Amino acid sequence: MKQSSAKQYAFSDAEYEELRRIIEQSVGIALASGKRDLVYGRVSRRVRALGLSSFAEYLARLRKGDQAELEELVNAMTTNVTQFFRESHHFDYLRETFLPEMVQRHQRDRVIRIWSAGCSSGEEPYSIAVVMAEFLDAHPGWRAEIWATDVDGAILRQAEEGVYPMESLKDVSQERLRRFFLRGKGVNEGKVRVGKSLREIVQFQRVNLIEPWRIRQSFDAVFCRNVIIYFDRAHKKQVVEGFADHLAPKGHLFLGHSESLHGLTDRYQLIGKTIYRRRD
After folding, report:
1. What value does the mean pLDDT of the chain take?
2. Given 42, 86, 105, 267, which residue is catalytic?
């Protein structure tokens, strides 16, 4: 049995494998065998925070069904790397192609619904909201609804606050900064807050993508970028099939730059760079 050396806690192969199984069963993240140091680093912080003396004690706590701690583990293990207008071609497509299509399709109800799945700290749904707000300016009487979800409850609370360091908005134009963001003063110097007009468009909620979804409405588009790359094949298929079930006819799915539906499902047609349309 191997154990990590020069570390505060012993960490056996069996403990690592058990944690891998728990994480995969909880959120579908399939950790490769080479992620041992990553798991140690993130989970040891939870062991320390709880005042425990070993990984064995921590695992015993999880086995007893401590749901609050399971959520803390999930929060610790999920990666939250994002920025405003990341993969900008998606937002160009949204503005230039998708929204004109929606104008033709939604003449009766005049509502456009988008789901940002795996929204992390909120930069993605707020970027979508910027494009939607500009669209609404030119189309009075229309309404936009953006549903933003993530499995990490802590990062969702941060997203709802909508406060970001100024450097994270480097790809936001000065015109958009002036219109949609509030610059901090005093102790908040160097920070900005998303303005009320955008925050009113976005609704945040905790959703675990590999658990049953209690969703009754359909969406015109789903953004799920740089999320399924962490899932094993079975969970990838489960999630993208679920999106197809909840997309309106000819609804769009936007994936991350390293993600593909090749070999997973035949329910979508590739129509652009990591942009798919549901087949009907």
Report:
1. 91
2. 42
